[in-house]
Design brief:
Blueprint: H1 16-21, E1 39-43, E2 49-52, E3 63-64, E4 72-78, E5 81-86, E6 98-103, E7 107-113, E8 117-124, H2 132-135, E9 139-148, E10 154-163, E11 174-182, E12 185-192, E13 211-217, E14 222-227, H3 228-238, E15 251-252, E16 258-269, E17 274-283, E18 288-290, E19 293-295, H4 306-339, H5 341-355, E20 358-362, E21 368-372, H6 384-390, H7 392-397, H8 399-413, E22 428-429, E23 432-433, H9 444-462, H10 472-485, H11 506-525, H12 529-550, E24 551-552, E25 555-556, H13 573-577, H14 585-598, E26 612-614, H15 615-623, H16 628-644, E27 654-656, H17 682-689, E28 707-712, E29 721-725, E30 744-747, E31 750-752, E32 762-763, E33 768-776, H18 782-785, E34 788-795, E35 797-802, E36 805-810, E37 818-821, H19 824-827, E38 835-843, E39 849-859
Parallel strand pairs: 18-23, 31-32
Antiparallel strand pairs: 1-2, 2-3, 4-5, 4-10, 6-7, 7-8, 8-9, 9-17, 10-16, 11-12, 11-15, 12-13, 13-17, 14-16, 18-19, 20-21, 22-23, 24-25, 26-27, 28-39, 29-30, 29-33, 31-39, 33-38, 34-37, 34-39, 35-36, 35-38
Length: 861
């Protein structure tokens, strides 16, 4: 088992009047508008997440949050001359002058003007928190609004293209495409030939299953699919697209990069604006593997197809424009009122980032389950100490989504699969939600406290504790755990795991204390007055003890046994927000006063050991402040960092407070925690939370374990002999007729320092191993054939082939045998009586290592 440690490395509206009603835009110290480090363009989930990482939209290629190119290109042709609006392709075409960019919660708006033509490009994701039917749609709109500004008429046409690179994890993967209609829309579609659903899991991965779509009204546009350079040249040279789609398919996504393109011949433009738009969408088909069961995206829960999605999106477009404008206007006004202009700008930048770092799936009862992905970390799914900093956005704006973020963790933690007295840490690696039966990356006090505090916050939303009822025995058990270990935590990890283990952590102790108070509050709402009194008294007694061991020269220590230290006490904010009144107000007052004395140019460090900070936690300590002046004194340096940093990442939640060039973890859902300030105004909190009138409660139970029957055995029970080599073999080593007679023979499991319970029999300690074995498929009934899966232990990156066909690609590692789907093309080879050669490559990077593979039939119960 390896404990992951994060490696820290590296707003204009449609008119001037609209800008004013959205609240005045924040400005930097030199009175220029805010410059986001990266601008959200197309945002839906961790796979459809495209950003501009440049000052100008036409400075550079647009990118997935992992920085891999996901090219969106737009040109404008004015009176026969072409200019670039979006992307740096083709480089020889002159960029059109960009005059402004602004980021609002649901829209990013670019303004361009050359003195003759004014262009407004708007990227809108209708992420409306009180309407999950709309919010869950995996799409964004790109709108062009064009008008003449020189009292002359101009001939204008627009080009837009979307790359097939959106559909691959690596550029060499094969894609194909099609040209179709969806009602009154022309819809272009592309995807990989090998539809490897829900794999690979991991952090630095992109989707390579499902299909990307771009659609526009047929009456307004011409469309073609073909090589990027061919389509661009055709438009630049003559303002047209080829009459026919490129027929050379399938081919690699980087082989004359296939793109889906539209042109709009607008004609003669005068002072009256003319608008055109496209819809960029992604149909994942399947969203999450949930304890062995595939879950569809929430928008597909009633059987909707991609065609239905696109037609509904087009029909609703005019109304959604109005709704998004109104939402942005109201939310920006309230955020400015509560936290000031700079705070409002930072939170606006966080809004879509938080949402598109999560996947929204439907369970067996068609209820929403929200799964976080731990981006720029280790790709964990449903990580409790990621949910905790994220959920203030949903406690404020969408209690439904706050609940949906916790249901899977609560169900798992209350099940027989979880055998520990504390709450779980995570549920697997996105999008493979499987649980971590061995305990995972344990943070016992951290995660138990996180869940109890969030459950109390949700109860404040609802005015009752009914949501907690289903899991009350588990919540009670976690409260009992905190009674024993919460006040003085032993040497264990907290959410700031990149700082390592720390005994007697005073901030973690605050979490344990307040979690007991939260549990007592839940008891009160459930009518258990004795329990409420017990836990309120216990929390207050623990807080009194905390002050005797933690306070040091007017502020509190990093750890009880470490004098002359300090740390951010961000957990303390819940005492204020949930009206617990456990700690005296002087504790928060003294903390804020001390933070002002240790602040660096770009913010308050996390603690006295480092100059690293966390953006989310910094907003939490700012919310402790009793005055607007003190709040803004902590927030403004964060604004300055985002405005000035050379690290062109989506909003970073970690950076170094005296290094404007530093970057760190970014594109993560934890920035939802920036909305915690909005919970400090009870009236505004109630206004937005009660706007969520969605009645969702009947979540399906956790799927039962499948009935697993071994078909082609692993070496878990009895040794299986393989051919193997540590030397790089020829490229055709996966082929059925490859001669492996010169390879060594050995018994599985192959490895070094393998996980507990895995029987290592052959030593493997090099970087790579290649394996081959042959078997004859047993005579299985059709029902068993349809449920075939790999059973694999891999540490680390593993590729499995069947008769030369890639059957599984799984990066990272697991700590025991797990089940994985077989890629469809390879699964077709597994017929009764067929001769199969299984070839495996496993690559090792750090820590323990091991590999073993077999086949099972996994029949759902």
């Amino acid at each position: 088992m390896r404990i992951f440690q994060c490696a820290v490395a590296k707003l204009v509206c449609f008119s001037a009047a609209t800008v004013m009603c959205c609240a005045a835009p924040a400005v930097a110290a030199d009175n220029r508008p805010f410059r986001p480090p990266a601008v959200p363009l197309i945002t839906s989930d961790p796979y459809l997440s495209i950003w501009s990482e440049a000052d100008h939209l036409n400075d550079s290629v647009t990118r997935h949050w992992t920085h891999h190119p996901h090219p969106l290109v737009s040109l404008i042709r004015i009176d026969g001359k072409s200019y670039r609006l979006m992307g740096d392709d083709p480089n020889e075409v002159e960029p059109f002058p960009q005059t402004n960019v602004s980021v609002l919660p649901t829209r990013s708006i670019y303004e361009f003007d050359d003195g003759h033509i004014h262009v407004t490009m708007t990227f809108m994701s209708a992420a409306l928190p009180h309407d999950l039917n709309i919010l869950s749609r995996p799409l964004s709109y790109i709108t062009w609004s064009v008008r003449s500004v020189d009292n002359a008429k101009h001939a204008v046409s627009i080009y837009d293209s979307t790359s097939s690179l959106l559909t691959v994890n690596t550029p060499k993967q094969q894609v194909d495409w099609r040209h179709q209609t969806a009602g009154e829309l022309t819809a272009l579609c592309t995807g990989t030939v090998d539809q490897t659903y829900l794999t690979p899991a991991g952090d630095d991965t992109r989707i390579d299953w499902g299909y990307a779509y771009v659609a526009a009204p047929t009456s307004q546009t011409a469309a073609a699919i073909g090589a990027d350079t061919t389509l661009l040249s055709s438009f630049v040279d003559g303002g047209k697209l080829p009459a026919e789609d490129d027929a050379r398919m399938p081919r690699a996504a980087d082989d004359q990069e296939p793109v889906m393109a539209f042109t709009f011949d607008i004609g003669s433009i005068a002072a009256e604006p003319v608008e055109r738009h496209v819809i960029v969408a992604y149909d994942e088909v399947w969203s999450i593997r949930y304890f062995g069961k595939r879950l569809a995206p929430y928008w597909r829960r009633d059987g909707a197809t991609a065609g239905d999605l696109l037609q509904s999106a087009e029909k609703d477009y005019p109304e959604l424009v109005k709704r998004c404008e109104e939402f942005d206007k109201d939310l920006m006004a309230d955020m400015t009122k509560v936290g000031g202009e700079r705070y409002a700008q930072i939170a606006a930048l966080a809004y879509r980032q938080c949402l598109c770092a999560c996947g929204l799936a439907a369970d067996a009862n068609k209820q929403p389950l929200l799964f976080t992905k731990e981006n720029t970390s280790n790709g964990d799914a449903a990580t409790v100490d990621v949910i905790f900093p994220m959920d203030p956005i949903f406690v404020f704006l969408s209690p439904t989504l706050a609940k949906a973020s916790l249901v899977s963790v609560l169900d798992y933690g209350a099940s027989e699969r979880w055998k520990f007295p504390c709450a779980p840490h995570d549920l697997g690696t996105y999008p493979n939600v499987r649980g971590t039966d061995e305990g995972g990356e344990a943070m016992p006090v951290e995660e138990s406290g996180n869940i109890l505090i969030l459950m109390d916050a949700i109860a404040h939303d609802d005015g009752n504790a009914d949501f907690a009822t289903r899991w009350w025995p588990a919540l009670t058990q976690w409260a009992h755990y905190l009674e024993q270990f919460g006040l003085d935590p032993e040497e264990q990890l907290c959410t700031d795991d990149f700082m390592g283990h720390l005994a007697h952590n005073s901030n973690l102790s605050i979490k344990g204390i307040l979690a007991l108070a939260a549990y007592g509050d839940l008891c009160r709402m459930r009518g258990d007055n004795a329990g409420a009194a017990k836990y309120q008294a216990l929390a207050k007694a623990d807080a009194a003890h905390w002050m005797t061991v933690a306070l040091d020269d007017g502020h509190s220590r990093l750890a009880f046994d470490k004098p002359n230290t300090w740390s951010q006490k961000y957990n303390l904010v819940w005492d204020k927000l949930l009206d617990m009144n456990v700690f005296p107000p002087s504790v928060a007052e003294n903390e804020v006063a001390h933070y002002k004395t240790v602040m660096q140019k770009y913010g308050v460090p996390l603690d006295s050991r480092t100059h690293l900070t966390k953006t989310d936690w910094s907003l939490w300590i700012a919310t402790l402040a009793g005055s607007r002046t003190d709040f803004e004194s902590i927030v403004s340096p964060i604004y300055d960092y985002l405005d000035q940093t050379t690290a062109r990442d989506p909003l970073a939640d970690s950076y170094v407070t005296d290094n404007v060039h530093s970057g760190g973890m970014h594109a993560r859902p934890v920035v939802g925690g920036l909305f915690i300030k909005m919970l400090s105004d009870p009236e505004i909190w109630k206004k937005w939370a009660t706007g969520d009138s969605q009645k969702i409660a009947d979540w399906a139970p956790l799927p039962k374990r499948p009935v697993v029957t071994e078909v082609v055995p692993t070496s878990k029970q009895e040794a299986i002999t393989w051919r193997y080599t540590f030397d790089q073999p020829p490229a055709d080593y996966t082929a059925e007729n490859f001669d492996d007679s010169a390879w060594k023979q050995g018994e599985g499991v192959f490895g070094h320092s393998v996980a507990a319970g895995v029987p290592q029999r052959t030593q493997w300690s090099t970087d790579d191993i290649w394996l081959r074995r042959q078997f004859t498929m047993p005579d299985l009934p059709p029902g068993k054939l349809r449920t075939l899966q790999f059973s694999i232990y891999h540490d680390e990156d593993a590729d499995v082939y069947l008769n030369g066909v890639l059957a599984l690609h799984e990066p990272g590692y697991n700590s025991g045998y797990e089940l994985f789907d077989i890629f469809p093309l390879a699964a077709q080879l597994l017929k009764p009586g067929s001769k199969i050669t299984m070839a495996v490559h496993c690559h090792q990077t750090v820590g323990g290592q091991g590999i073993d593979v077999g086949l099972v039939s996994a029949t759902p119960q």
